[in-house]
Amino acid sequence: MGLVWQRIEATALGYAVENDRQQILRMQGENALLERKVDKGLSCGRIAKAAASELGMIPAPLSAERALPASPTEGAPQSFLSSLLARVWRRARRDARLFSS
User: Fold this and answer.
1) From CA 65, how far away is CA 97, in angstroms rounded?
2) Measured between alpha carbons, how far is 66 from 89 in angstroms, rounded to an integer?
3) pLDDT confidence of residue 74
4) What average pLDDT values come out for the chain (101 residues) when binned by 10 residues?
5) Residue 75 has what pLDDT?
6) What's the pLDDT at 61?
7) Burial of 48 by CB count in 10 Å (0-12 exposed, 13-18 middle, 19+ buried)?
8) What pLDDT does residue 81 have?
9) Handedness of CA 86, 91, 95, 100 (dihedral sign)
10) In this structure, is residue 65 part of a structural domain?
């Protein structure tokens, strides 16, 4: 009788494990979908479009932009972070111009 009970418990445990595996797969799929939605919502183009349509913001004219040197010494090499920030800023400006047209 004890052996039958053990087999029944083992079978029930196997079903529970399989249900948990399926739930994990389903949740991983939902997580990937949500990550794509967040990435899409944080894209430079989408932010620029929302800024223009919802907030009435317009890109600043190029004459209003000022570039500051990376350090007080003119011509000093830029740090990795400042060059990365400059590239991201230029890309955001370009995307804003594309979506504002």
Assistant:
1) 15
2) 13
3) 55
4) 84 94 96 89 82 85 74 61 81 75 55
5) 56
6) 81
7) buried
8) 77
9) positive
10) no
Phi and psi at 72, nearest 5°, equal -60, -25
- The pLDDT assigned to 14 comes to 93
Nearest-angstrom CA–CA distance, 90 and 44: 11
- Is residue 50 domain-resident? yes
Is 84 a member of any domain?
yes
CA distance 92 to 60: 12
Domain tally for the chain? 1
* Residue at 32 is within a domain: yes
What domain range is 90 assigned to? Answer: 8-58+77-100
Intra-chain end-to-end CA distance of the chain, in Å: 78
